[in-house]
Amino acid sequence: MILRDADASDRLGRALAKRVRPGDVIALSGPLGAGKTSIARGVLAGLGLAGEAPSPSFAIVQPYDPPEVALPVLHIDLYRIEHPDEAEELGLDEQRGDSLLLVEWPERLGADAWRDALWLTLETKPEGGRGLTARVPEAWRARWPLT
What we know:
single chain, alpha/beta, 4 helices, nucleotide-binding, P-loop_NTPase, tRNA threonylcarbamoyladenosine biosynthesis protein TsaE
């Protein structure tokens, strides 16, 4: 899939918001500037967040709760995590049960983290826009592709 501009990333996020459930993980992978936060912001807007969501780069975890959004969301940026053990202190697996996890830089936890996540990998295209590749687990098969 090609996301031609920031509006396309926002639309994808909003479309995802219509299909998410508590306990879901959406892993957003790609280099700096690839559009991970744009998709996450689209999801949050689609769940009712008014205004622009800050990037959780420094906080690592930015929580959102109803009535601000339709369901609890943890927007997570693992860029500053240097070793998977550091993420254990965040207690993400414990909080996942009733929350949606939007995880930027999920590869910091290794390939085995969240095998049931919808894994979206973005790449910057030389001609402009972003290429998006989706790894769709069984839990997402009935909800993907977004049409």
